[in-house]
Amino acid sequence: MNSELAIILIACLTSVACAIPGVFLVLRKMALISDAISHSILPGIVIGFFITEDLASPWLILLAAFSGLITVVLVEAIQKTGLVKEDTAIGLVFPALFSIGVLLISIYASDIHLDADAVLVGRLEYAPFDKLMIDHVSYGPKSMWTISITLLITLVLLFAFYKELKLSTFDIGLSSALGFSPVFMHYGLMSIASVTTVVSFDAVGAILVVALMIAPAAAAYLITTHLKKMILLSVLFGIMSAIGGYYFAVWLDASISGSITTVLGLIFLLVYLFAPSNGLIAVLFRQKRQRIEVSLLTFLLHLNNHDSVEERRVGHLQEHINWGKVRSKTVLELAQKNNMITLQDQVVSLTAKGLDFTERALDYIITNKDEKIEDMKNDFFLFRG
Amino acid sequence: MELTDFFTDYTLRTITLGTAVLGAICGMLGSFAVLRKQSLLGDAISHAALPGIALAFLFTGLKDSNVLLLGALISGFIGTVWIRGIVTKTHLKTDTALGLILSLFFGFGELVLSYLKKQPDANQAGLDKYLFGQAATLVESDVILMVIVTGISLAVMLLFWKEFKLLLFDKDYAMTLGFNTRFIDGLISFFIVLAIVIGLQTVGVVLMSAMLLAPAAAARQWTNSLGTMVILAAIFGAFSGVFGTAISASYNNLSTGPVIVLVAAVFVGVSFIFSPGRGILFKQIRLIRNRRDLELKKTLYFMYGIVEKHEDISRPHSIRILNGFQGYTRGTLSALADKHWITIQGQDWSLTEEGFETAQNLYNTNIPES
């Protein structure tokens, strides 16, 4: 297998393995736990490396994953004392553990083939050359084996516990009432996240693991609110960024993991801007339209309240409701276009349709009953809630 | 390594002074971050500053720390604004937004750094120090810059003290009083970003957030007053800086940043355990004391139940009849006697007038305890 294909394959497998737990972390509002875990497995990795002297050894992976779990437990213990808020607890624990890891590396720098820089960004470039050798026969890159096994375990657990995970993510009360232990689910997910982080760590480093976990899931969450679709989409985003990132890195002759993250960032930026109903542009458009519709409603209600001719002059309206020229013009035009009002000699009067509309809107405001405005929902964002 | 070296050795003096000032400003501004529940914002901002440093070098080719820090300031600020944009305009939560900005910006920064490394002519070797920080590279001008920034932020903090305080604890009230909360909010955020950027050279991108959090979290345990907390946090921060520098200078191969963070973590640990008001130790002691008191009163009430049936309160009863009641020991009996609630004579006990009254009112919540 040539090294180019091997790197792409490892990158894709890693991004898929990260994306799946990432979806649940994002949904459970625990995205930053992945940040904490990815930093605090470092002392575990260093100590494990002293013992096994092999970064791909299963014992090292277990030991490091265990130190990830310790982080979770420690954060929860500090939270439970109530001395500081949850986010402060996270922010206190992982830098301390990470510092211990960095110091261990720097003290034993001569004995250990880990450098602090590689810890942060990983060495995907070299991954294909570290091959699994059994009896002098090469079985392909080690990290491909570890990540494939991790991915397999993740997938098996995902299929086995899909409905339990789904339930405990969205309705923890119901899930414990039905007898599924939320604690079990929580620590199960944390263990998977820990193991995945450790395994990916060698390839993509501490901080980029966080990107691979959170960014695809966040982008997918902006597009869909359906769990299955969200998982599939984030896997897709992960693979896209892995492949795109590789070729971008080759073209630029720069770090592969950095470039994968950058591509992920671009994907997220595009989704953030253009997602159909939750993207920035869609949200701004909707907010603007709602603002205009509120203005229109205010305007019509004002007309309904004041019958006398001088109260209904265009100039007077600007004064009375305190709108600028542009805004009043937009509202006037919108009202005219919808046949709500007629304009004669700068005097505004409600049409029959406008009067009817206002009465019903008023009814709705007073009674707050939804059925009054059923048929208005088609024309107006405002009433769609 | 002698103690006097800290005053005579120029480099060491500069570094110690630098880390002390840095610790002080971080503690001061970190208090606001902690109280605003924005502890991890610092983590996100410090990571987000990395591409700024790398790009500033890419475009200017200068390794002057002021230029690089300006780049860091700009990209840190962009990160902050984007986090706010994600949280306010979409349904993604704060944690997701922080994690996103942190990792995506950092990855992009790494990309630019690795690109710079491959350039044949560029003299970029010093940029790596922003990852973990190298206090050893601090020179006098850096320390002067730190002192100036600290002075400015101190002045602004004193000037806007009551606005900051109001915003921290009751934002809605501040708004109704007509303060421009957006401006004050931005001002606090700006100074937090500034403190982070100043610290990058010394402590590094990865550990900067702990510098901001740890002194403030430790100070929070000792006081409930904002002013005291800010001062305490500044002192804790400064001491972490000094001790950290001293420890890392005394041994080979110890980078200053992680040591400072660990010293600050020790401050936090000690505060969590030993602070009189909120500390775990004293809380536990209070818990045990309350439990003992409850046992004592239960015993007293049981005695009251026996005595009640007799006309003469002070009639002695045998201690043996208490055997059926769990929770009485020789210790509780003498404790009761010490309080003059009972008197013990040989194998008999009798309730005193005072003890009878106390027992009578034990479950009467209408009478205030005196």
Protein architecture, described:
The complex is a heterodimer of chains A (385) and B (370). With 385 residues, chain A is mainly α. Chain A is 73% helix and 4% strand. Chain A has a two-stranded antiparallel ribbon. In chain A, strands 3-4 form a two-stranded antiparallel sheet. The relative contact order of chain A is 0.11. Chain B has 370 residues and is mainly alpha-helical. Chain B folds into two domains: 5-275, ABC transporter involved in vitamin B12 uptake, BtuC (Orthogonal Bundle), CATH 1.10.3470.10; 282-366, Arc Repressor Mutant, subunit A (Orthogonal Bundle). Helix content of chain B is 71%, strand content 3%. Chain B is built from 16 helices and three strands. Chain B has helices at residues 5-8, 10-35, 41-60, 65-89, 94-118, 129-132, 140-159, 161-169, 171-176, 181-203, 208-220, 226-250, 256-274, 280-307, 330-338, 353-360, and strands at 317-318, 342-345, 348-351. Chain B has a three-stranded antiparallel β-sheet with strand order 1-3-2. Chain B is elongated and about 105 Å long. The two termini of chain B are 60 Å apart. The model of chain B has no long low-confidence stretch (mean pLDDT 84). The interface between A and B is large, with 63 and 60 residues.
Layout of strands and helices, then pairs:
The complex is a heterodimer of chains A (385) and B (370).
Chain A: H1 3-27, H2 31-52, H3 58-81, H4 86-107, H5 116-121, E1 131-134, E2 137-141, H6 142-160, H7 162-170, H8 172-177, H9 182-204, H10 206-223, H11 227-252, H12 256-274, H13 280-305, H14 314-321, H15 325-337, E3 341-344, E4 347-350, H16 352-367
Antiparallel strand pairs in A: 1-2, 3-4
Helix pairs in contact in A: 1-2, 1-6, 1-9, 1-10, 1-11, 2-3, 2-4, 2-9, 2-10, 3-4, 3-9, 6-9, 9-10, 10-11, 10-12, 11-12, 13-15, 13-16
Chain B: H1 5-8, H2 10-35, H3 41-60, H4 65-89, H5 94-118, H6 129-132, H7 140-159, H8 161-169, H9 171-176, H10 181-203, H11 208-220, H12 226-250, H13 256-274, H14 280-307, E1 317-318, H15 330-338, E2 342-345, E3 348-351, H16 353-360
Antiparallel strand pairs in B: 1-3, 2-3
